[in-house]
Amino acid sequence: MRDRALIEGATAWLEPAGTLEAVTAAVREYAAERPVARPSTPRVGTHLTDRELQLASLHASRRGLTPASIGRSLGLAPTTVKTHIAAARRKYRHSGVAVHTREELAAALIADGYLIADEDWRRQARW
């Protein structure tokens, strides 16, 4: 499982044998060393909520996850997933960006810096 996580882009691995306090401390330490910032200059009108970004990214990913499979893995109803994806698409449409297909949605998310393009991912030898 560790090797698969690292292949998929994980930057660290925590063994699950530690206490909750030890694992929490390790995660906080790691996160403090590597702050993750959302893009500083997204298109006007495309400020996505964290949930919209999460679900739209999963839906637009190269794996092509369905709202039902995303919902199962996150404990959400498929209709909730669809609602958030539709809200993200609506925000892009209002800013003049066509996002009718998964590919168009992925391109918009990449252009705004929310996703990494496949070519950049490969160049970084992530897969």
TrEMBL record:
Cross-referenced SMART domains: HTH_LUXR
Organism: Branchiibius cervicis
Domain HTH luxR-type, first and last residues per copy: 45-109
Signal peptide location: none
Database matches in SUPFAM superfamilies: C-terminal effector domain of the bipartite response regulators (SSF46894)
Domain of life of the source: Bacteria
Protein name per its UniProtKB record: LuxR C-terminal-related transcriptional regulator
A Pfam family hit: GerE
